[in-house]
Amino acid sequence: MKRSGSQSEHKPVACARCRDFLRCAESGGLQTRLRRKRKVVLTICAIASTFLITSAFAQADAEFGKANQEYTQGHFKEAIAAYEALIHHGKRNANLFYDLGNAYFRIGDFGRAILNYERALALDRHHPEARANLQIARDEARALELRATMLERYLQFATINQYTIAAAVAFWLGIFGIVVSIFARRRSAALIFLSVLCLLVCAISVWAIQTLETGSEGRALAIITGKDVQARLATADTANSVLALPAGSEIKILSTRGDWMYAALPNDLRGWIQTKSAEQIRL
221-280, what's its fold? Predict the structure, then answer.
């Protein structure tokens, strides 16, 4: 029997399972929306990064083209400034150093011309124009060269990068072979031999890298860029001269002391040189 003025209102009541289902559905929808937003943000970031990288390369190419134009017009000092600005901002390749060497050669600065030809060859040993112009600049400057040992000459049939790759590949092949031999039911003498051989190749490659890095054409190799440079017996301008070094001559830095460096010189000599008179080939 219904009471007047107090009609009972029946509201639908969801069971616990239904509430859980709705909650899961809402949560799933929220996660889907969040995933979509993440994808949109990542896509925008990727597009922005690509645009920035492309813009940087395009700007560098434009600046390189401008530097080449200065060189073509005979504005060699302006071209040198433009090339060196590119190098300062991280653009380093064999052709850039080669062009910079040519610009220095044009203004008669043979020391820095030889330095940049050497830097081009350090990045690309098979750069024929850089090698040919290097020899011309050396002849013009009468620059002195360090003599490589017989061992270094034999090891120079490959570059340091090639030795590094060989060492890494041989190391991992050797380790893989040893691991397989340990867990194999039957140990193969041939596999063990090949693994040991790979590790031996790795060790020889590392030794070759170390020999070349510390040799006459290693990381310590520098080029005389000053004029009328004298290698001396002590760290003083009044000390006796050991050897006169024309611009473009090679030296190997052994140690440094203040504004002076002790170096191995051509003709199997050693002496002290002012630090400002030479620059290392490796940047």
Answer: SH3 type barrels. (2.30.30)
